[in-house]
Amino acid sequence: MPPADLARLAQLAHEAPLRVLLVNAGEPGSLTWSGLYQPLRLAARLLGPQRLLVDVRGPDEFAFDALCHWHLVLLVADESEAAQKPASSRIVIERARAAPFWGGVGAGVLWLADAGLLGGVRAALPWALYLDVDTNADHAIFTPHLFEIDGNRLTCCGGAASIDFALTLVELVYGVTLQAQIKETLCVDRVRGMDERQRVALQARFGALQPKLSEAVTLMEANIEEPLSTDDIAGLVGLSRRQLERLFKQYLGSLPSRYYLGLRLQRARQLLLDTNYSIVQVGLMCGFSSGSHFSTAFGALFGNTPREERQRKLNG
């Protein structure tokens, strides 16, 4: 997320109270709903109503609610409920857009995309819904990440990622201390960041939609230690370099080389946290022949050095 977006979110802490509305368009007991609602509800309880109010409305109730002023509105439904778009969805979406920050979780992301409101925006759509996107709608930049914050639009793929999304919002607005209190209450050991990907095979995400893209990413994932060049990958999948770059830009919001670098760094981070390989070994295993290049690239993506990342494991 660009620093400007982070700064804008952090400013919400000065609202007294900050008013957050969750429009529940699905089953209240779903994993998506529970993962999002419980951390925010606990944050509101710990901060008190003078600082944070988290409210819930059904779609019809929100569509005709007299109260218009919300700071953040999220349209929430599990991915399995995508076909159950509320009859009042057009009014609900228009009202949600009146808030300074707004977005969707799970199937709510699909409904926003189909309404043409995510054109050019990085959005985290549940992988299972990629084929349900209206191809006539404005093109969103769907990423494989757990959640995205792009300007004033927030999206999350839902499911178990909802709790990571909610806890990240708590940290961005109110700080790590409050987040730690909620993590302890909910027995959450680690909050996954927005740069982490939905854990599902690439073939499932893109196989039918863009088989060449799926093939290219599979090649990248199979060649972490000895990375291929963009030209090599393009040739192996039967595309020109320009065609490959166009596919990556449209569906993953990144150039192939940058996406590949992200895969290698994600793998490095996993090895730093889950194994006892030395930092030098981890760098070599992820295709970095220079320790300084590894450290610089790692810091640019994650905001800390490989050594600091390893220290997190030791401190934990």
TrEMBL record:
InterPro entries: AraC_XylS_family_regulators (IPR050204), Class_I_gatase-like (IPR029062), Homeodomain-like_sf (IPR009057), HTH_AraC (IPR018060), HTH_AraC-typ_CS (IPR018062). GO terms for molecular function: DNA-binding transcription factor activity; sequence-specific DNA binding. PROSITE patterns: HTH_ARAC_FAMILY_1, HTH_ARAC_FAMILY_2. The lineage of its organism: Bacteria, Pseudomonadati, Pseudomonadota, Betaproteobacteria, Burkholderiales. It comes from Massilia psychrophila. The keyword Transcription regulation applies. This is ArgR family transcriptional regulator. Residues 214-312 form the HTH araC/xylS-type domain. It comes from the Bacteria. It holds the Pfam family HTH_18. Keywords: DNA-binding, Transcription, Transcription regulation.
